[in-house]
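Hey, resending since the last one bounced:
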Amino acid sequence: MKQFITLLFLSIFFQLNAQDVAILKYNGGGDWYANPTAIPNLVEFTNHNIKTNISKNPQTVAVNSEDIYNYPLLFLTGHGNVYFSDNEATNLKNYLISGGFLHISDNYGLDKFIRRELKKVFPSLELKEIPSNHPIYNQTFKFPNGIPKIHEHDKKNAQGFGLFYEGRLIVFYDYETDLSDGWEDQIIHNNPKEVREKALKMGANIIEYAFTN
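The structure tokens again:
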């Protein structure tokens, strides 16, 4: 009963709180701070094109912090190891089932670690590939073929995976595409304008979906 009341309070808090995004800091040695220009650029694009009002200076929050409940959307990336303690896994689970949303961007090398840690958070849930007709691909910007390919890793197809809790998408995981590379300053990866635009539009869709579902 106590947990139900806590989650109900957090759900109401999300609805009343300002819409912002934060970068999730985790333990394990992986570079959670990778792609530092990505989120600011995405926020600028989203504010301009879908009229959000997100702070241009995203904050960093730790997995075990109560501060994660200040943000309806958390962003996680990196190239290496990710580790959640039991307390961190519980905190992240409570955040997600009470209305939060987590976007994970595979920055190459993250996959085996994040899959392992998500099992700590939701032992009974499986990552499922999200079909192209899902609303996350059909917000302001349309992606009839699903997630776009942005950055080449192993010549594999880009895939968007999700964790669903009671029918709601709570985690979106972009794999073998690295959307956040496409959000960074053009000079960093030298991506063509049309590739960066696709990445930013998909990122805007993720924000729009997270803020309205």
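Residues 1-17 have pLDDT under 50 and may be disordered.

Sorry for the duplicate.
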